[in-house]
Amino acid sequence: MKKEELKRLKDELLSSKIYNLKQSTLKEFIHPLLIKVLSFKTTGKLIVEGNLPENENCLIVANHACIQDIPTLAQAVKKHFYLLVSDEDKKTIDGLALSANGVQWVHRLGKESRKFASENAIKILKQGKNFAMYPEATWNLSPNQLMMPMNYGCVRIALEANVPIVPVVSFFSDNNRYTIIGEKFYPTQDLEKSINELRDIMATMLYDEIQLNYKHNIGQKGIYCKKIDGEDYYYEKREEISKDYWDNYVSKKYNEYGRAKSDKVGVREFESQFIFTSKDESNQYFQVFNSIIEEKDNNFIVKRISSEKNGYNGLTFGEKDNQSTFGYGYNEKVLKKNLKR
User: Fold this and answer.
1) Band of pLDDT at residue 35, cut at 50, 70 and 90
2) Pair 199, 67: CB distance under 8 Å
3) 287: closest CA among 299, 274, 302, 300?
4) Residue 74 and residue 35: Cα distance in Å, rounded?
5) Cα angle 240-245-249, degrees, rounded to a multiple of 5
6) Which parts of 185-324 fold into alpha helices (H)?
7) Is a pLDDT exceeding 90 seen at residue 206?
8) DSSP state of 34
9) CA-closest candidate to residue 63, choices 178, 174, 187, 168
10) Measured distance CA(267)–CA(260) in Å, rounded
């Protein structure tokens, strides 16, 4: 273990109130106040469907889309929960608020830090507390995936703590925030099968939220409805959507987050390495198959081929020369490492 990482873990262990759950009563007491403070980070009306289990604790697994995810989750579930958060914002004002509420910081690039955080989450759950995490590991900025691939660490944590997983998904429109709190999910020892089932459940929940948003705005221009098998299906027409829509959408999300606003390309490059990548050969093959790969000066340049009609999605914001939009589809850094082997 590197000395820097060992020192980080030591400092975390000495300073963390969560490690032995000290002051947990105080954290739960001030939780409603912190929800109000965090609400200043949100926009639009919150529409919630479902509730957390009444008489048992759980592992909350949520989707990850933007800076409003955490305050929206807190407002939606209402009950106090501890949260797994990457340590990039640990020393910010938002980080201090999260620490006061109860947070397990993790250094995503450190293997030992990830192990420490996972073990601590299990301890918290075994004490009867709720714990929340975002297994997509980074914002889902893909133009064509409802849910990014999810790391099955959450399945392992739930099994070891002997608690159910409760999936929670949020969708953000221009005017509203839609959150669905799902039914309890009991994973099995088949980690890969369980995480795929959970991802499918959450993708379906998210799809239902998008349909609900369309239903609420059916009178607006550009939203259509048709019946399929006796049920209403709401949609927009691709040809009526602005060519720059996705670029503008992603830029807006990044502009709401200080670290990303100041260095969009750098943050995007950094975050791409946390997209979960299966290690099986077939997955690696299709990543290569779905990419434009160029070698220059012994370095690999990876460019994604989108499943969108117009094809190639580039590496950065608004690459005019390639007439492309913001590309975000898989773990590019992992793929580059594999190509060098």
Assistant:
1) confident
2) no
3) 302
4) 6
5) 145
6) 191-216, 245-255, 258-262, 264-272, 281-289
7) yes
8) H
9) 168
10) 6
- What's the Cα-to-Cα distance from 137 to each of 109, 114, 140, rounded to whole Å? 12, 12, 9
In sequence order, which residues have a C-beta less than 8 Å from that of residue 103 and are 6 or more positions away? 18, 82, 83, 84, 85
The rounded distance, in Å, linking the Cα atoms of 211 and 116 is: 40
Pull the structure tokens for residue 120. 């601590």
The token pair that represents 63 in the structure block = 């989707």
Residue 146 CB coordination number (10 Å): 19
Tell me 306's DSSP state. P
Q: Which residues contact 260 (CB under 8 A, 6 or more apart)?
A: 253, 254, 267, 268
CA atoms within 13 A on the CB side of 21: 17
Strands, DSSP E only, in the chain? 45-49, 59-62, 82-86, 103-106, 131-133, 165-172, 176-181, 224-228, 231-235, 291-296, 299-305, 312-313
pLDDT tens track for 283-338: 555 556 666 677 777 777 666 544 433 333 444 444 444 433 444 444 556 666 66
Contact 143, 72 (CB under 8 A): no
Residue type, 300: F
pLDDT grade for 247, boundaries at 50, 70 and 90: confident
Report d(CA 23, CA 192) in Å as an integer: 36
* Residue matched to tokens 């370095």: 299
CA distance 104 to 158: 16
